[in-house]
Automatic annotation (TrEMBL):
Gene3D superfamilies: Cytochrome P450. It comes from the Eukaryota. One of its GO terms (molecular function) is heme binding. This is Cytochrome P450. Its cofactor is heme. Keywords: Heme, Iron, Membrane, Metal-binding, Monooxygenase, Oxidoreductase, Signal, Transmembrane, Transmembrane helix. Residues 1-22 form the signal peptide. It is a single-pass membrane protein.
Length: 483
């Protein structure tokens, strides 16, 4: 009983502090702040946005704001005063603005779950240093060596979960596949109890990343924090183990297809022989890569399967491209980097899928000092909220946006910049872009050349915050032979 009363008292104190903070924020920088309401303290419009995302009406919810206030408005999301901006100019502003005025910073819930030393939080030279270290592993020249490994994991996955089956649920299986690939390539973890523990903790952790940051028992946020601590502990044990292995090898490891991301980061040294990236940065960026690589790729592959079931002509065109590649190889011969680069039409289909069903709903930036945007002032300390689909589905940018048309991406360089942003834009494009491309194309290659399928449920999906199809997208499958 005493602990319950203490929790209530602390909660009331938190409300009082946030009320005071909200009043201070709402009165700052004169009356030139954007139009709109900050709503209730702490909660603001968070619950309303989350409800609309789960009902798959979030874009309409935001369009109503645009209709009422224009392309910029203020609101309160996840406990912080926020400005929502929309349009090509807004996207360009987000991805090109100097970091001394608009910096990386996610919501408090994400920051507390993933930490403050990951790429989404780091600024200036720290961001450049850590991004550069991760890009050494994820750049195309390095990823060429990993196509065969991804091929091996996809074949094994199909053999275990697809062959001999009549019905499967696509999304859970794609989450299993992408998690297995991440664990193998990024952490050097193969099948076993340790990897299974990672998966259980990880799935619970990501559920509370978009949530109101009130750390009370039985909330999603509280559960996510607990699982985050467990994952960090397991990763720390893994890092220590790899450090011991490196010490036994005199701290020298040759670059090879077997080298995982953590080993790669541990081996990096500057000109003076000092570590390029700290252990804390390794742990937190490993967690970030887990989230990005697991959810985005699994959702993209799932929606490609969904799309191909509804578009027979597109399925046949993808199948024809993939069969041409398959015919040029022995059945046991793995795909290569050159094979992946031949999958041009399939990647156009994937891009159109990303346009209509982007895995990442949107993101946040933090205002470092008062800045002028349009005719308004965005105060220091506020966050900026941008949403991917708002330009993807804008008829002024993409004609007939509800029509699935892969030909939009025949010449992607001709598209107006900062409108198609599933992986970000400019210098801030996601460093895992090429990894996601390879993972997606290899998976689709084996699915379309080995199976045909039809949907067993309706086409509804919700965002939580990633798009989640009804019942995990159950399908009926039939094996096929190479034509």
């Amino acid at each position: 009983m005493n602990s319950f009363l203490l929790t209530i008292i602390l909660f009331l104190i938190l409300i009082f502090l946030l009320l005071t903070r909200t009043k201070q924020c709402s009165s700052s920088s004169s009356t030139r702040v954007p139009p709109g309401s900050l709503g209730f303290p702490i909660i603001g419009q968070s619950l309303s946005l989350l409800r609309s995302m789960r009902a798959n009406t979030a874009e309409q919810w935001l369009q109503q704001r645009v209709n009422k206030y224009g392309s910029i408005s203020k609101l309160n999301l996840f406990g912080k005063p926020t400005v929502f901006i929309y349009g090509q100019a807004a996207n360009k502003f987000i991805f090109t603005e100097d970091r001394s005025t608009v910096a990386n910073q996610q919501t408090q819930s994400i920051r507390m779950i993933l930490g403050d030393r990951n790429l989404m939080e780091l600024k200036g030279e720290d961001h450049k240093r850590v991004r550069g270290a991760i890009m050494q592993f994820l750049k195309p020249e390095s990823l060429k060596r990993y196509v065969g490994k991804i091929d091996e994991k996809v074949r094994m996955h199909i053999q275990m979960y697809w062959d001999g089956k009549q019905h499967v649920k696509v999304l859970p299986l794609m989450k299993t596949l992408t998690f297995n690939i991440i664990c193998s390539l990024l952490f050097g973890l193969e099948r076993g109890k340790q990897r299974d523990r990672f998966l259980d903790c990880f799935q619970t952790m990501i559920e509370g990343m978009w949530s109101i940051p009130i750390n009370l028992p039985f909330t999603r946020f509280n559960r996510s924090l607990r699982e985050s601590s467990k994952i960090q502990k397991m990763l720390k044990e893994l890092v220590q183990k790899k450090k011991i292995e490196l010490t036994k090898q005199n701290n020298i490891i040759a670059s090879s297809p077997q080298q995982d991301l953590i080993t790669s980061l541990l081996c990096m040294r500057d000109e003076e022989g000092k570590e390029v990236i700290t252990e804390k940065e390794i742990l937190q960026n490993a967690m970030l890569v887990m989230v990005a690589g697991h959810d985005t790729s699994s959702v993209l592959i799932t929606f490609l399967v969904r799309l191909l079931a509804n578009e027979p002509a597109i399925f046949e065109a993808v199948l024809q491209e993939q069969e041409e590649i398959a015919k040029s190889k022995l059945a046991s011969e793995p795909l290569t980097w050159e094979d992946v680069n031949k999958m041009k039409y399939t990647w156009r289909v994937a891009n159109e899928t990303l346009r209509m069903f982007p895995p990442i709903f949107g993101g946040f930036r933090m205002v470092v000092k008062d800045i002028e945007y349009g005719e308004y002032i965005i105060p220091k300390g506020w966050q900026i909220f941008w949403v991917t689909a708002m330009t993807h589905m804008d008829s002024n940018i993409f004609s007939e946006p509800s029509k699935f048309d892969p030909s939009r991406f025949e010449n992607q360089s001709s598209l107006p910049p900062y409108n198609f942003i599933p992986f970000g834009g400019g210098q801030r494009i996601c460093p895992g872009y090429e990894f996601a491309r390879i993972e997606t194309l290899v998976a689709i290659h084996f699915l379309v050349t080995r199976f045909t399928w039809k949907l067993c449920a309706d086409n509804f999906f919700k965002r939580d915050p990633m798009p989640v199809p009804t019942q995990g997208l159950p399908i009926q499958i039939w094996p096929r032979k190479l034509s």
